[in-house]
Amino acid sequence: MIRSILSVALAFGMAGPAAAQTLTLMKGIDAPHYDAQRTTWGPTSDIVNMFQDTLVALDWDGRTPIPYLAKSWIISEDGRTYTFKLRDDVSFCSGKKFTADDVVYSFKRLKDPAIKGPFAWRAGNIKELRATDPYTVEYELEEPFSELLLQLTMFTNVIHNKESVEALGKDYGIKGADGTGPWCFDHWHPRTEIVLKRHDAYKWGPSMYQNKGPVKFEKLVIKIVPENSSRVAAMMSGQFDITHQFPAQFITQAKAAPMLTVTPAKPNFQLLYYGFKITRPMVADARVREAMSIAINRAEIAKAILLGNADPAFTIVDPAALDFDPATKGIVTEDLARAAKLLDEAGWKPGADGIREKDGMKLAPRIYFTANANSARVAEAIQGYLRKIGVDWRLQPWDSTISPVKMAEQDYEVWSVTVPYLSAGDLMNIYFDSANIPTPNRMNWKDVETDSWLKQGRAALTEADRAKYYALVQQKVTREHLWMPVLNINMDQVASKKISGARPHMIYQNTFYKGLDVTR
Fold this sequence. Notes:
Layout: H1 2-12, E1 22-27, H2 42-51, E2 56-58, E3 65-67, E4 70-75, E5 81-86, H3 100-111, E6 126-133, E7 136-141, H4 148-151, H5 162-168, E8 183-189, E9 193-198, E10 219-224, H6 228-236, E11 242-243, H7 251-256, E12 260-264, E13 270-276, H8 286-294, H9 298-304, E14 310-312, H10 336-345, E15 349-350, E16 356-358, E17 361-362, E18 366-370, H11 373-387, E19 394-398, H12 403-407, E20 414-420, H13 424-431, H14 448-459, H15 463-479, E21 483-489, E22 492-496
């Protein structure tokens, strides 16, 4: 371990005079780009939220939208029109003044078919956007959207500078991007580092922070360190200030380390699941999907691989999340004998090598997942369980920078990601609306009832109606076994004790969020 720590120290450079003015953060995986409107990717969102802002912010409770770029809003009685009053003291990193025109431009760009924004639905079904004066926006919807304010806190809905977008063209979010956040985009070396610098003019931090800006450091350096052992060594040796991707199997050691502070993000909803592309013949039968789901031992996986830093997941939505439906409990059970019986009923019979066959085809689905240690070990564990019932999972890991692209393709049966979400409605709308085929609805699930219930849940004017329709969706997609829920993942922030004020935020795997209160 000592040799490992020394090698990490040499690799990243020992502390020098500039260290006091630089905050260092460590991530395990990088993103394909940093254009928030063109991705669902968590590794994009956490960086974007540092250099770009939303109209409203999400309070620490994970449920309450609070003023940010919009200092107030009024909602019409029919739930279709939101009138946002904007701050008049905000500027982009470039120095350009922020106005209502930037809001109108950003949401029109998000809805532009050319962008193919996978999370465009988060902004609601917009009928018209009007800048009635430089600091007022009328945001008119085709129909009410019950979670609009909650969704406007998400990275997809950050505000962009048209001049920056047009100047950079296809390199927007790669070579640069302008924003109104507390940090400014400086440069990015893919798979190596992202460097942000302080936005000196920033003074409009949301009320959840004591410091409204600017941040306390001149520079924020985010290093990409894929290897688990290297991240552990780097934090233990004091080479980094903070990470939210500390390997779960070493959290116990981090808690005992005198130089580190471990803080869980609460609340936190992150589901590690495996999804089935139901248009592929091998997994088109719900009995086959159910068999795979009930043949594994989630408690063993949580204990052996995540070392207790995750809970077994038998429902798609966490029971503590907004609008969770209790009726979904008990649909997914673990029963090896029943799993084998289901495969028999579906016509998949054991071959000479023990792997099931049907119509000359082996039951050997191709599994796509992002190449990181936990995902690989979980996939290998499931592979072992499923061999007991004659299923041969063919594992195909992908680097994080190309994983989203590969998962958007059709040439696999099963994929896995860990998805962060805010509520039952949030998760259902992300994945199960047919409008989101082929991504993020990678199941190719196209169902009239599901689409109707989602629409009614989104348009609900009361909490009771919203919960009712989202419950119907949860029940149907769970009974269809479109996903194999495996683990509800904990999220811990590990920081040097030299750092204070680094309260972790739960929003979309961010924890750091804006970093306004962080000091050394």
